[in-house]
Design goal:
By secondary structure, this protein is an all-alpha fold. Helices cover 67% and strands 0% of the residues.
């Protein structure tokens, strides 16, 4: 029970921080405001995060929460290839509507220069576990190719998704991320379809 409460506390801090970052910008948000918005304490904040910069990496885990929320709603009439496209659309909708572009770009830049933890590459995340389940199931049902291993397929899909996000950041959000992904991702991952 204590572990669940700790996860809820950390989650409240992360959610509050990203909400404020989106409204006020990263620089315009203070740790005190994050603590107040999350309804936690200074001790709780510093138990989970060294400072405001440490929250940037938490975006990956915020995305995981979205995947956990989406998983029970995966349409049963879709094959696994269609599920991958659906998940991508739902996640990118959330990103486009609630994640400040400047912060997403900052996250990518920190992942390129940091020597420590790289949350975007953490294969213990919900994101990677969910992809492995979907891809394994798709291969078993003949809906996805077996040309690549499950791990290679997961890596390829994640790489394509990151490419879409990175390009959107480079272009400073000059187009709809979701619309672009809905057009381009099927071209990027079309080779993953099985031979039913």
């Amino acid at each position: 029970m204590a572990k669940k409460n700790q996860k809820k506390t950390k989650s409240r801090i992360v959610s509050a921080a990203w909400k404020l970052f989106y409204k006020q910008g990263y620089e315009g948000t203070t740790i005190e405001e994050i603590i107040e918005e999350s309804g936690t304490s200074k001790g709780s904040f510093y138990h989970y995060f060294e400072g405001k910069d440490a929250l940037l990496g938490s975006l990956a885990y915020m995305m995981d929460e979205k995947y956990e929320e989406l998983e029970p709603d995966i349409p049963e009439d879709m094959n696994c290839y269609e599920v991958l496209l659906w998940l991508n659309h739902e996640l990118l909708t959330m990103i486009e509507e609630s994640i400040n572009l400047e912060l997403l770009a900052r996250l990518y830049s920190t992942q390129l220069t940091t020597r420590g933890e790289k949350p975007l590459l953490d294969h213990g995340r919900t994101y990677y576990k969910l992809l492995r389940r979907i891809i394994t199931k798709g291969r078993e049902r003949g809906e996805l190719t077996k040309t690549l291993s499950v791990s290679e397929t997961v890596h390829y899909y994640a790489m394509c998704e990151r490419a879409l996000l990175y390009e959107w950041c480079l272009r400073k959000g000059e187009y709809s991320l979701c619309e672009e992904a809905d057009k381009k991702l099927p071209l990027m991952i079309g080779s993953l379809k099985g031979t039913l």
